[in-house]
Write a structure and sequence with these properties.
mainly alpha; Four Helix Bundle (Hemerythrin (Met), subunit A); 6 helices; 0% strand; elongated
Length: 145
Amino acid sequence: MINTIIAGVFVYIIGQFTLKLIIEPLQELIKEIKKTKSLLIYYKLTYSKMEHYQGLDGRKTLPNIVEELREQASLISSQSSIIIGFFVWKKLKLLPSEEEIEQIVKNIFKLATITLTDLTQNKISKEDMLLVNTTINLLSKVESI
């Protein structure tokens, strides 16, 4: 009887350990990656039309968009650093590699810089649009989850 109780408590503790230290951080990173991809697709019009974007609510301005993109890049970077067994998730193709995560963050920060400088002067280039598409493609690696 006591062995059953001890085994049950042990299984509960192991389950909570796995949930809190492995599964929840992984799910949070995947959520942030998908949200970032969604934002990039949503604001792609801003890059392609070279104009200040007013969202459906009329409150989104370039500084808000830039702040949102930078925040997402920071969240992806911080979330990826706390994933236990990152190489295992990469091998299972559940996450992009660490190098791809770094490239995503770098691209998003570059896009934010482009947005503030070039876009306000209507000087966005085809290379900048390629950067948007490349970043979206890198983020798409988690779509299979």
